[in-house]
Amino acid sequence: ATQHPSATQALRGLPTKYSIPARMWKHGIHKFLEVLRHRRPHSQDYMVAFIYLAYQMMALLLETVPTFTDTWIECLGDLARYRMAIEEEKEVHATWGGVAARWYTMASDLHPAIGRLYHHLGILERPSLRKFCLYAKSLSCVIPFPNARDSLSTLCGPIVQDENTIQSSSHSVEARIVTYHALVYSKAEQKLIDTVGNDALQLLNQQLPRLRDIGAYLAVTNIAAIFELGSPTNVLYQQYAMAISRAMQYSRPSMTPGGLADLESQFQPALTNGSPTPSLVSTTSFWENTFALALKNYTSVEDILPYVHVMLVSLHSLDSLRTGLSIDQTENHAIDALNVGRLAWDALAEFLNTLVRSQPISAWILECARQRAFPVPERKEDMKPLSEDFLMRGLIWAQFYFVSEWFDGQTEDDGRSIESDNTHKARVERVLWL
Where is each DNA/RNA-binding domain found (predicted)? Predict the structure, then answer.
């Protein structure tokens, strides 16, 4: 009735005023699903039937009540995830997992800053670096999802439970990297953390072509680790939060200067912390050494380009942070703690020269660099984000990297992960621009 064409404005506003869609999900669907779930396997058939009924209803609401599209999409993802969770047949289980991922991806495209959606995507993944990365991203977004720490604990627990399980990852670079970050998150002994970290670097050196598949996830995970997964006491995280709060002040004049001062005052205690913790020193060193290893020992440019791109975006954001907050030398401890000066700049310069020899810098890229303008192609059909752009989107350190229209017109099944010659060319141009 509230959405009928003849409904008054006051009647149309009732669902928003009383949060009716969210309450309908919570009390009309979710609670009953939980009752049925706790009574499985006897309630299996009833639960499947109810999921299908609720799914059809939500799909109908998605078509007929577009005002609450965001809510319906996330509810459809949740229903698909429930259906996946209770399915024992592998093929059907995988199918419903894909359906849930499709809805959550669509939701995250609409609201990229909300960490909760990446947490839900992480739940759908098997234990892997991608899963850890999505959990880490949900904690490092502009709007973090603190409950992701519980899911991280569930993921990391079996990985680090004893010496045998820790050693079982010693042959796979991806597994060893996940083990390293799991040990850091679990606050294991520092000696063990450093040993596993060195093992991961040695394996990465031997299996460097794997960076083509996992490079972007590795870079985002390493960066999340130096933010201590969005810890409220992390100095760097708080400085980015301050930069975003100041940007919000300029974009929303209704926020009073006094309110902004109150908001920023929450960050000040963190800015006066002493020396970094041993685990932060370790993750910072791992971040540096991974970058150096990739740049010095690569065999193919294509293997490491996505990883290098993400790393350069993070370094670009540090420079923007320094400028945006007008940080002087006395306040540089957060940025300087990363030992940015110790990064492999010589190796990076040599790598960039190699790129230029294979693909000369165009006049357009040079002009964008001079104007400090994001390189947006003139033709709309050429404006296609890179696969790692979607991974960085919403992260607190990438908040000001993309132009507002960069992701316009993208859909959840637009082949964003498909690589082509044009994709490689665009990635090279972006790296050279940075």
Answer: 100-155
